[in-house]
Please model this.
Amino acid sequence: MPNAYHASIEGAQHGAKSLEQFLDYAKAAGAAGAQPSNYMLGDGKGGFRKVKDIASAFSSRGMRLDGISAHCPFWVHTSAWTGTKSGNPFIAPDVAKLSPEKIEAWHEKYLLKLMDLSAELGVKSVPMFWGVAFGWELASGYPWGFWGGSGFDLVKEGQERFVKKTAKLRKHANSLGLKLCHEIHPGTAAMTADDFLMLVQICDNDPCLAVNADPSHCWEGESWESRFLKVGKYIYAAHVKNFVIRPGFPLRTMESNWTRRAMQFTDLGSGDLNMQRYVELLLAVGYQDRYCKLHGCESAPLVVEAESAHKALDYCSADGIAYTAKNLCFPQAGGSFEDGMGA
Model:
């Protein structure tokens, strides 16, 4: 039987590389596919490179196009209304000078074109995350009682805001048969499995709403197993990423230096998570079958996003690709190991 998975790599962290440089690096590290960022596909003029050129870059290297990482523009689109400057590194300088309303409108148009490109390339799973649609108070997750009162309800207002702001994007995704795969993540519109299920409910079970599984964001009480069992049927994309929690250090702190933070991302083999158990759970909830049926392929990508505060990015990512190819890509069981007993 063929392997259920193949090793792939996320491109957002490698934005200093061109598409061709990124693919050459990934190929040399042993990746079978890659997930470039939307920025790698730009033409330098605010648009995108030709479909045939992008497809040729992959086919000439014998590599699979495993999605387009669209986290940054989707997050900016749904967060711009707050006036935050934390998305500015992902925004062109001339666009960043605009009003929040115009920044949002610009990104909506951009994302519609990005979805067209994805569809033309035959990529139907779009890894992304929705922005801070519910406001920064709710994004903090702090359990205080000031989210509703006389004349206001921040949860209800956020629900209405999310439905309205995402309506055009969701409609276009459905018209193209795309899955918008939200990465359940701190500082987004859905930070837990229940948050995501709430988005599905308020959008009347919109079929484009899907999940990009990533176990490295389960470090505040909700385990990766409980999270992805709850949203299993929505998983159409998957990252592999690991972390450690340093005991005695505060998880919530105004410390931007990763070497001093309590939660730190790591290489895949030495973190707190058992990555083999994670990819086995992905099989159990049907990710591989679901992805392959959508794309007409035999194996689903495990997209490496190995990061470290202490190890060089290219070293850590290449090590993650090798780890994934050796340890996480295996033939899926066709039945129970007991089937042959007594034969």
